[in-house]
Design brief:
The protein contains 13 helices and 13 strands. By secondary structure, it is α/β, with parallel strands linked by helices. The strands form three sheets. It has a seven-stranded mixed sheet with strand order 2-8-7-6-5-3-4, with helices on both faces. A four-stranded antiparallel sheet has the order 9-10-13-12, covered by helices on one side. Strands 1-11 form a two-stranded parallel ribbon. Helix 2 runs antiparallel to helix 10, helix 3 crosses helix 10 and helix 11 packs parallel to helix 13. It binds pyridoxal-5'-phosphate (PLP).
Length: about 375
């Protein structure tokens, strides 16, 4: 790994960090880009004719950049505050009919599931479960099982499938493009909502993002951007069929006129004032990741580290990785003997080694990124062996 990326992360200078899936560390130059942008906004404005072109340039550049990463046109990208709002805002605007069924995987994040449950309550929709949590084998077996189970669970009433790209608990990658292709031929062609919280910045997303109807991400996890800024890629049919629910001046094609139409593109799901300096910070983090190689090359490096950790865990008598094979990405979940995961997190935290516990399945999760060093993995394994 080129030394410069890690050297840009002050958060890693004084701790051993495995919580990239919770929040990525912010590079120094991203923090500087945020401050510089903030200063320029003050020098030009803040609310003057001079500042608007600068703001349009800053947000436009990031929209173009994310569009390249997502493999879609910039008109399909909406900025959000986080993953969850990227999932929920377009979802709630779809034309639901009582009796429509939402097929939700059993590995979705509690916030997204809660939003689906409330939507179902309000609109009289049915909920069904797509089981994927027990898939612990090879990528090809996992892909085949997901597609088979999808076929089994789809009914004529299925109107939406909710499936994360990289499962936040087991660490398996879902075959999103193949799922999207399978849905085309089914009944009323169910919409596909993909939670990309763990995927953007850790695995290549372009095929999946281009195939999904809603592909929601955040900048603050694997992209190592600032918290408070995310993005969602929307399909062309989503732009036709979903009406915004949370509405503000940024949703309108003529922002000063309340009679105006909504934007025809994804901006219809943007709302109102947001923190523009964060856009400059995320753009800088994406540039730093670009400089480390393509998404495929970066995944290769992430995977080499997660494999090392997975193999080390296999060798520990007390540890049991959730996956039967080396992880396809950077999420390594495991159980450790009889010790409660929360107690392990606390014990290791006292030594400044940071990982997290998960409720379902009840386990520990350590993430490896391109900035993870071999000696950090050794340190974690040694600390776990001392339980
Ligand atoms: C899979 C998944 N979805 C959603 C979220 C929530 O993210 P945000 O706070 O950006 O909405 C997380 C955060 O950990 C996550 O892992």
């Amino acid at each position: 790994m080129p030394a410069d990326f890690r050297a840009q992360l002050p958060a890693l200078a004084n701790k051993t960090y495995f919580n990239y899936g919770g929040q990525g560390p912010l590079p120094t130059s991203s923090l500087e880009a945020i401050t510089a942008c903030w200063r320029t906004i003050q020098e030009l404005g803040p609310f003057t004719g001079a500042v608007w072109p600068f703001i349009a340039q800053t947000t436009g550049r990031l929209r173009q950049h994310l569009a390249r990463w997502f493999g879609v046109g910039p008109h399909r990208i909406a900025f959000t505050e986080n993953v969850t709002s990227g999932c929920v805002l377009p979802l709630w605007g779809l034309p639901w009919q009582a009796g429509d069924e939402l097929l939700i995987s059993d590995c979705e994040h509690p916030g997204v599931v809660a939003a689906c449950r409330e939507l179902a309550r309000r609109e009289g929709l049915l909920l069904a479960t797509l089981p994927v949590a027990d898939l612990r084998g090879t990528p090809s077996d996992t892909d085949a099982q997901v597609l088979q189970r999808l076929e089994e669970q789809l009914t004529p009433a299925t109107r939406l499938v909710v499936l994360s790209h990289l499962l936040w608990n087991t660490g398996q990658v879902m075959p999103i493009a193949a799922v999207a292709a399978a849905l085309v031929g089914h009944g009323r062609h169910p919409w596909l909502l993909v939670d990309g919280a763990q995927s953007l910045g850790s695995i290549p997303v372009a095929d999946a993002a281009a195939a999904a109807d809603i592909y929601a991400c955040t900048g603050h996890k694997w992209c190592c951007g600032p918290e408070g800024l995310g993005a969602v890629a929307l399909s062309e049919r989503m732009l036709q069929e979903s009406q915004p629910t949370l509405i503000g001046w940024r949703s309108l094609s003529h922002e000063g006129n309340s009679q105006s139409e909504f934007h025809g593109d994804s901006r219809r799901f943007e709302v109102a004032t947001s923190c523009v300096p964060l856009y400059a910070g995320l753009e800088q983090s994406l540039l730093l990741l670009d400089a480390e190689g393509t998404a495929e090359q970066r995944l290769d490096r992430i995977q080499r580290r997660s494999s090392k950790l997975w193999q080390g865990l296999q060798a520990l008598s007390a540890a049991t990785p959730l996956l039967e094979v080396p992880p396809p990405a950077g999420l390594v979940s495991f159980q450790l003997g009889d010790e409660r995961p929360e107690a392990v997190v606390e014990r290791l935290g006292q030594r400044d080694i940071w990982l997290r516990s998960l409720d379902n399945p009840h386990c520990l999760r350590a993430c490896t990124h391109i900035s993870t060093r071999d000696d950090e993995i050794d340190q974690l394994l040694a600390a776990l062996a001392n339980s």
